[in-house]
Amino acid sequence: MNAQNTPALPIIHLISSGGFYGAERMLLDHCQATPEHHQVVFLDAPPALLARFRQAGIDCIGCNGAGETLRHLRSRRGERPVLNTHNFKGLLYGWLGATLLRLPLVITQHGFTPRSPRQRFYTWLSLQLCRTPSVSRVVCVAESIAILHRKANVRADKLQVIPNGLPAAAPPASRTQNKPRWLAGYVGRLSSEKGPDLFLDALIPLCRQHAELHAVMLGDGPEREVLQARIDAAGLHERISLPGYQTDMQRWMAELGVLVISSRTEGTPMILLEAMQAGLPVVAFGVGGIPDVIEHQYNGLLATPGDSTGLGNQIDILLGSPALARTLTENARVTQLDRYHLPVLAERWSRLYLSATREARA
Q1: Mean pLDDT score of the chain
Q2: Domains, the chain, ranges and CATH?
Q3: What is the value of pTM for the model shown?
């Protein structure tokens, strides 16, 4: 098939979102990197998020509720688009649209957070829907997520693991040497699944041991006040700060001495790949897809999930060994470019969209 003479496949993404986080960053990069014609349907999303995608040149609209979403999909039915869903509400609405309108459906599974009865129900229902004939492909961003689908008896021929990736970037900004402080960074939503409390469990004792160690928690969320109260009670409000959600991560990448990922659950975190690309060493819990990316003591440091003492020990090791930090970051850059380079992964996505379309038309 000659790509130059073939019209771009129409792809409609459905995602429910409250802000620009990892899945949204992945989706924006994905739309820019792949040659298909993408439209993003945001479900009950803030206007600022749509504006961000539009500024990047992505066709997008907002829909409120299942009825409006289905009406929009029906209006596009004649184009025979592929539906590509992200997160539970996107999956549910996309499944309804694909079933009623007989459209090919691709599910992107970024990960699960089954920490409450409702979330566990969403996880169970998501896995059950992936088993139905309406779903053409299930793309998991990490092998650990694919394992859950296999255990739920999702057909093997539906499943693919395509990790997140990053587009090519300019050389990372030079990192300031001999800084008066060494800054450990948390980046993410301040909510339980991301483990901000576990980050503080590790950092508060370390800050008391090392006068040069400071920490910053970049992000916002429901646990902010509780976290700030803990920091104040520890007498570390001048050493551990919560500046809120940030839009310019490049500046912080150059300022941080380490990225700490204290999540209780993860897929393949975009911030992990960004740190590797930027030359920022990483210390993380070995959860979800992180051990697929990080090899302990080769391109990062890992701790047992949930073990904040162990996490703190790994940060302490890095703090005392600039040579180790340099080795880890050099190897991490190679890993990111070899295995998580978006232009290469985009080709796999294009082949997947094409095969799903051909099967639907057969």
Answers
A1: 93
A2: 3-166+341-361 (3.40.50.2000), 182-339 (3.40.50.2000)
A3: 0.86
